[in-house]
Amino acid sequence: MRTLTNVDVLILDDFCTISVDLRGQEDLTKIVIERDGRLPTIICSQSTAAYWVKVFPSRIGAESLVSRLNNGRRLKIGDFDMRKHLAKQAAAAQDSD
C-alpha cells in the first residue's frame, strides 16, 4: 500500500466496475487520504460518484472518499466505447478476408 500512496501519479482505470469489499474500501480510502493535496490521482470510470457511494459497503466511508476525490477536476468524454469500435473493426477485417 505504501507504493500506491507514494507513486508520482496513481491511475485507477475502470473504477468501480467490480465489487469492492469493506477491506478494499478501507485500503482505498487510506491511499486517497494519504495522497490528498499531495500527489495526483486519476480515476477513470464509466459511473458517477453517486453510484460509487451506493455500491461501496460503508456509505459513510464512501461519502468521505468521494468528498476527497471531488476536490479534483472532472472530465466527461462522452459515451464512445473504444472496445466496441475496435471489435467492429476486427470483425469487418475478418469478413473481408
TrEMBL record:
GO terms for molecular function: ATP binding. InterPro entries: P-loop_NTPase. Gene3D superfamilies: P-loop containing nucleotide triphosphate hydrolases. This is IstB-like ATP binding protein.
